[in-house]
Amino acid sequence: MAIQSEQVPAIKGARIARWATGVIMIALVVAALGLTFARYDIIGKLTGFSAFMAGGLVALLGLLLGLVALWRGRQVPLSARKGPLGAIAIAAFYVGFLATRPMAAGDAPALHDLTTNLADPPQFEVLALREDNLAGVGTVENWRKIHAQAYGRLQAVTIAQPVAVVAAKAERLAREAGWAIAKSDPARGHLEATASVSYIRFQDDVVVRIRPDASGLKSKVDMRSVSRVGVGDLGINARRIDDFLTALAKD
User: Over 90: is that where the pLDDT of 102 sits?
Assistant: First the structure.
């Protein structure tokens, strides 16, 4: 049976649609395996995140192929193209999610170590500060300069309660947030914990330091939050400090 000339574009469109669907499925598999392997530390966190980003590029290719397929097969009723349309929608969501991440981060600089006290940041005693903690900034002075310009709002809070009381509240809030407590010393006003971020479970280490005022009736709370991997944090550590200290002051 001869193929009518008007049927040729539809046939080619169907073929491209199959290619697009296959490419998008490959992208989803790459992303899912990368994220899941990294979540359970089978591969490194950044390696898993790179797989997620690479999957996004593959998904973009599949999306473009899908749009071409839709155009070439525009004479075919939509009801007959549910499969390709679904794959295209998934790819569009995936690519759109990646494209909006920089916007979600706003103007957050490439910092991964955030604190309320640049002159005397709280120190970790149990959890180890990463060896390359100056990655992206080079020197302590440069870190302080960039930090002050971007996160001048991060300040210690004063709470009208004794150190031990505030420390107990801080530990409770940390546990409610799902953080893994590494050290808690209410008498000294010292708390260390690890927070996990996103499905991939990026880990950020947190230290809270609580000191009494001269009367011993009020407490000054400083906090520090440091990402274990990466140079920038998309503003996550600063938001963590803001949210935690706000909740602690209100509690």
Answer: no
